[in-house]
Structure formats: structure tokens, C-alpha cells
Amino acid sequence: MLLVEKPLDGVAVVTLNRPEAMNALSKALREALAEAMTGLDRDPDVRVIVLTGAGDRAFTAGLDLKELSTDPLGMGAANATDPAQNPARAVLSCSKPIIGAINGVAITGGFEVALACDVLICSENARFADTHARVGITPGWGLSQKLSRVIGPYRAKELSLTGNFLDARTACEWGLVNRVVPAAELMPTALKLAAEMASIDGDMLVTYKAMIDDGYALDLGAGLELEHSRSVAHNAAVTPEMVAQRRAAVQARGRSQ
């Protein structure tokens, strides 16, 4: 139900593999995803992760409502804080960059998992929907807070208080996703971007991602103080020789692009 592959140097692809159930997040799949993310976070050979869903219908439809309907304790997953049961936290707990390759619908909890990624590349088949209100539950994996910070409170309220779908093109116009590509180009595009990221030193990727994420959770003044303190600590270990070596590599890359 979960595939982990390493198709390129420094890049791992994690695929939610329940296409017959629209890649719904069953208890077993949530546990498998958390285990995979923990393992890849510790793997020194992996610098960037691509997260996607099997098939072309769904990235993930969120919690497996069929499973929940037969499990009186299952609704606790909607408010779980343990990454083994909260897949958004499983993704967020990974210190490495995660590219979401959104191949189909990302609904409710699936929307929350998408929002936990660092970059979103969408197929033209991708659509997003927050159906929490229509199901009669409130989000517990971050959607009510993160969505409004990404697209603004007015647009977030429109989506969450109607349960309507947002198509890929509009999602891109609203700043929810980085870009939209034809379905056949989704994984090649995501892998190309992942390879570009993976060409950077792994520790640098982790350091810079954390600086952006931690600062974004603060107001601007506190964020600038955070940047300053971390930058001073990091740059103190950078030598002129290191800068010269990397400058040559940056120049060479610029000439080839």
C-alpha cells in the first residue's frame, strides 16, 4: 500500500498505493507513511522526497471513511498528534524537502497532507476540496490554519464553507501550487525539480528549509531575528575557500541554464 523508490541520486519517491480506494489513508497506510518518512529522514543517501499517489484519480481522498464507519475509536485519528496516525505530521516531521506531485484529487485530510509538503506540482487532473464541514467534522491536521495563510482568509472560507472543488489552474492562480503540467509530465517535472534540489548539500537543504518554516510561523520582526541568529551561527563556519569553490560551481551552472 506504500511504495518507496530511489530513481535518482539523492531522491526518493513515496507513492500512496491504494488506487482502488482513491489512496484513502487507512490506519495501516498512515502507519506505513510515518515509518517511511522517518526512515528517509535518517537516510544519508536521500536529500529530497517526492510524495505522490498511485493512478490518475486521486492523490489521496483523506481518511478512509469506510474504515472509520466500522471503528468506534477511528475518529480519534482526525485529531491525532502522533505522526503514526496523523499523516500531515508525518510529512511535517521530515526535515528534508518534500515535493508533492498531486496526480488527482486531494480531499479533506488529503488536502491537509498536500499542504504539509514544501512544494506542490500538479497534474491537470488535480483538484482540491475541503469537505470537513459537509462530513460534519472539523479539521485537526492543520487545514483551517494553513490554508488561509497560503491563499488568504476569504478564499479559504469560500472553499471550506462550501466544500466545493478547486481545479488545478485556479489553485495555481491563487498561489496554492507552484505549477500545473499535463498528467504525463507530472512525475518527470517533479523528479527534475527534486534532482535540482538534491544537487545542493543535504545539510544546507535541511538548514534553509527549517529557517523558512520556523520564521514563517513568527511575525516579521521575530522572523528576521531568527534569520540573523541562525545565519551568524551557520556562516561562522564558512571559509573563503568554500565560497570560492561553490562560486565556481554556481557560475558554471548559470552558463548551462
Q: What is the compact description of this entry?
A:
The protein is an alpha/beta fold. It has 12 helices and 10 strands.
What would your notes on this structure say?
It is a single chain. By secondary structure, the protein is of the alpha/beta class. The protein has two domains: 2-198, 2-enoyl-CoA Hydratase, Chain A, domain 1; 218-256, no CATH class. It contains twelve helices and ten strands. It has helices spanning 27-42, 65-68, 87-92, 109-116, 132-135, 143-151, 153-160, 168-173, 186-198, 202-216, 220-235, 240-256; strands spanning 2-8, 10-16, 46-53, 58-60, 98-102, 105-107, 119-123, 127-129, 165-167, 179-181. The strands form two sheets. It has a six-stranded mixed β-sheet, sandwiched between helices. A four-stranded mixed β-sheet has the order 4-6-8-9. Strand 2, helix 1 and strand 3 (46-53) form a beta-alpha-beta unit. The longest helix is centred in the C-terminal third of the chain and has 17 residues, at 240-256. The radius of gyration is 19 Å and the shape is globular. The chain starts with a strand and ends with a helix. The model has no long low-confidence stretch (mean pLDDT 93).
